[in-house]
Design brief:
Elements lengths: L13 H20 L4 H18 L3 H9 L4 H18 L2 H17 L7 H13 L6 H12 L4
Helix pairs in contact: 1-2, 2-3, 3-4, 4-5, 5-6, 5-7
């Protein structure tokens, strides 16, 4: 994991995210349509890497990279980095979204039976909901609650 104190974290301007949103939509549309999506995913990850090089470390960039990474070990590491950057950025929004994504990730890995990592992250996630929630976090909360994890 990178040491946060070594990096200057610059917020990526909204205008720079337009390309990321378009590439993400292209990938998602291909997946939904049953078409080849690897090329679109590769383009998206490359664009995110370029933003990371240009603006430095950011919770938004790390979390989005994690969302589109197939390798589970790399994905977990990126989510952890994203959470650390969200703490450093003092972004309650991103702390809530990233910790929710980590919970979703562990649920996806079928650790819904109370795996230790999932229980820890569910607790972290719940601690951020008072300061930020949206439709996505509400869905994660309902899922965790229905499984007796909160």
């Amino acid at each position: 994991m990178c040491v946060v104190a070594m990096f200057k974290i610059n917020k990526v301007p909204e205008s720079e995210w337009v390309n990321i949103i378009e590439l993400s939509a292209s990938y998602t549309n291909n997946v939904v349509a049953g078409l080849e999506a690897e090329n679109a995913r590769s383009k998206l990850l490359l664009a995110l890497s370029k933003l990371r090089s240009k603006y430095g470390e950011s919770s938004d960039i790390c979390a989005t990279m994690a969302d589109y990474t197939d390798d589970f070990m790399v994905r977990e590491k990126l989510y952890y980095e994203a959470y650390i950057y969200a703490l450093y950025e003092k972004s309650e929004r991103n702390m809530s979204l990233v910790s929710g994504s980590v919970c979703d990730f562990f649920l996806e890995l079928n650790q819904a039976d109370g795996g230790v990592k999932l229980l820890i992250w569910a607790s972290i996630f719940a601690s951020h909901l008072e300061k930020y929630s949206d439709e996505y976090t509400d869905e994660i909360y309902k899922c965790l609650k229905s499984k007796g994890l909160l």
